[in-house]
Amino acid sequence: MAQKKITREELEANDGKNGKPAWFVYKGKVYDVTDSSFWMDGEHMSMHNAGKDLTEDLEMAPHNQENIERVKYVGDLE
Questions:
Q1: pTM for the whole structure
Q2: Regarding beta strands 48-49 and 5-6, do their DSSP bridges make them parallel or antiparallel, or are they unpaired?
Q3: How far apart are CA 28 and CA 35, in angstroms?
Q4: Smallest Cα–Cα separation from 22: which of 8, 42, 5?
Q5: What is the pLDDT of residues 29-72, one digit of tens each?
Q6: What integer pLDDT is reported at residue 1 of this predicted model?
Q7: Which of 25, 52, 57, 75 has the highest Cβ tally under 10 A?
Q8: pLDDT of residue 43
């Protein structure tokens, strides 16, 4: 089964604000953190915002890729 392709416009629209889902990209994959208690109103620890590619930011984060892989996968960024 083919993976869903997410456009940059879809990613940016799902920024966690005003009741929208909160998505981010890590290494070309889109993840949904809407239900995570670590992401409130599209913000993570007042440092990261949903609706963006956070690959570079997450390379410096105190957690590893396994934490990200526990989050709901949405699809691949086009």
A1: 0.90
A2: unpaired
A3: 21
A4: 42
A5: 999 999 999 999 999 988 899 999 999 988 888 777 788 888 99
A6: 53
A7: 25
A8: 95
How high is the pLDDT of residue 2?
58
Quick one: which H or E segment has residue 6? strand 5-6
CA distance linking residue 77 with residue 71, whole number of Å: 16
Is residue 24 within 8 A of residue 54, CB to CB? The reply is yes
State the pairing for strand pair 39-40/43-44: antiparallel
Give CA–CA dist 19/40, Å, rounded: 11
Q: Do the Cβ atoms of 10 and 77 come closer than 8 Å? A: no
Non-local (6+) Cβ contacts of 26 within 8 A are 53, 54, 55, 58, 65, 68
User: Which residues, at least 6 apart from 66, have a Cβ–Cβ distance to it below 8 Å?
Assistant: none
What's residue 45's pLDDT? 87
